[in-house]
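so i finally got all the pieces together for this one. its two components total, 762 residues if u count the protein bits. some of the lines might not be protein, just check the labels. i wanna see the whole assembly predicted at once instead of chain by chain like last time, that was a mess tbh
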Amino acid sequence: MFDFLKKKLNEVVKKVTDKVAPKEKEKKAKPKKEKETFTSKIVKAFTEINVSSEKVDEIFQEIEIDLLEADVAVEAIDKIKEDLKKEIVGKSIKKSELEKQIRNVFKKTLNEMLDVPKIDLMKKLEKRPTLFVFLGFNGSGKTTTMAKIAYWLQSKKLSCVFAAGDSFRAASIEQLEEHGKKLNVNVIKHQYGADPAAVIFDAVKYAQAKKIDVVLADTAGRTHTNKNLMDQLEKIVRVNKPDLKILVIDSMTGNDIINQCRMFDQAVGVDALVLTKTDVSNKGGSILSAAYVLKKPILFLGTGQSYKDLHEYDPREIAEKLI
Amino acid sequence: MLDFGKKITELISKALGRSTIDRETVESIIKGLQRILLQSDVDVKLVYELSNKIRDRCFKEKVQEGLTLREHVTKVIYEELVNLLGKEKAGLKAKNRIMLLGLYGVGKTTTCGKLVKYFQKHGSKPALIACDYHRPAATEQLRQIAEKLNVPVHIDENKNPFNAVENGLKRFAKNDVIIIDTAGRDALDKELSDELKKIGKIAKPDEVLLVIPADLGRTAGQQAAEFNKLVGITGVIVTKMDGTAKGGAALSSCYATGANVKFIGVGEKLEQLEEYDPVRFVSRILGMGDLEALMEKVKEAELDEDDAKRIMSGKFTLKDFYDQIEGIQKMGPLSGIVEMIPGFSSALPEDLVNIQEAKLKKFKYIIDSMTEKERNEPEIVNSSRIKRIAKGAGVSERDVRELLKQYDLTKKVIKKVGGTASIKRGQLAKLAKKFGLKF
């Protein structure tokens, strides 16, 4: 999935290197012996370069497009640019080292960007019952992700129950029930149009009574600009005090991913992310953007359509793949 | 987030007031445009192709009469985008068979319901066929929607999408619109491809609509092309336009399929489906709110070209003068208009520029009191006619003479400017237009 972004990043490194030190100028003034100060000065002039901040800006005007093409959001691009400036502007760098240096800056930046706080899930799950609420834009894959997490919990010998908190979309409850049937997980539900906060409250009570470990609560997909629905979410949180509010994000999302993350976070506070459909999105930039902008723990990446297709997020693994 | 729409407006504003568009200005506008489009998730290749076209047209094409350069460039950009997205306000006629396609979570099933509602409003009797037996409870979702809208839905008990289509079509032979919901996947895999192809063969749909979400990233073009290969796409529906996403993916999808946007989904309720409107959609992608006003102006300018041409050819009558006065009264002082036109502010006499509001009113009464012949041929107005006109208009003879003098002055200026080779015809027409319509 990261092939595309990787390709682009490599192109970017090449471009920056070439622009900073154009090849034709590289007539190597053979570094004989560094006796005379004069000669060594020339050698230095030919083999070392000083990059100005303007030069970096100029270069970035072009390579920005390479990164945008990989669905890396503008804010994230700015970060890469600033980091590069910090590391190479005003410093004398040997030409032969330039590419390596730029590559190192990139690696460091990407590591920083991908490095999000961690959550010790198993520790979170020690509470009885633990309540996870799933939020997100319409169609991002909340219900499917919940089912996958139920499967994952079961593999850790933890029992769970679903709360049908999406009482709006037609057949959302039935969809959850079908997953419940397959996974042998009970679904706590009310009628359509019911208050989702109450549904989730009941599910928690049920879990307490039946000694179930985890409550996984679905919510209706919503547009982050819809005030009423965001208020409803706020109520769900206020009434039920979930242990984790998990934002489910479709990794095929373009630049809007930043708005979506931010606005959900502002409304209710997001504790962790799950990025879905990462098996499809070959661009990969969305993960970079989401990780950098929100700086929230990323729990899992959804990597396919069956229950087992859920991978734990490992920033190092991704960074390695990228550069 | 930077407001790129604002940025491009600024960039384009830079071109304002220049008599010719220089390469540098156009390049900077195009750079800005590229960034906006990339920000809106438009496919990169397409962005370059578009910018080349726009660059070409900006240099080669004559500025439309009545438009400033800034407006001209905006118009070119708009037209190029609309060429892809669709020029006309869209919607759908009651066609027999409509098939909806799209990946997981794009909003196919909800859109089915919205389409039913749309056709009901237009007096049709739609019916639904459920072909998504893959996603849990998808058929149940369609059933609930159908129940809400009180339309029949055909669901195959054995979960066979092909039988569903075949029997559904038979069952709904009397319905004028049949909408077929299909299954999605995370990606278009072999299984889904085969299924869709086969459904397409059985259903022989009149319209195949691809559903894409407004926030879709740069995979859009590729996705659309793949779907198009399976079953030719005839239109695109962009869902979730009520969020903050700009819907640039629609451009890529239209480009990849050659189809136009038909509808946009603007909310979760079943009536929240809008017919595609080119001006509004492009405004949104570019983040420019004033596009609608501009396009209206382009239309107006086209209508008024005849007038402008007549005036340019020297046939400037008192009637035209009257129109100008009306225009000026509506829009503000003449001096502001004159400043807009390069080389013109010095050409107009000071007192013509500073005609007072009250005087303009008087001028109108005077022209109102003239005969048709006098208005068309002001030369014939002699002193006895002046006396009569003054009486009729309730003004002094001096006022009538002043009007005639102002008219003469204006006519001379127009002639003079028209004869100067350095000033293009378009600009003169612009002047004439501005006298009458703008400001």
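Residues 81 and 115 of chain B are 26 Å apart (CA to CA).
Strands of chain B lie at 97-101, 126-131, 153-154, 177-182, 207-213, 235-239, 260-265, 273-275.
anyway lmk what u think
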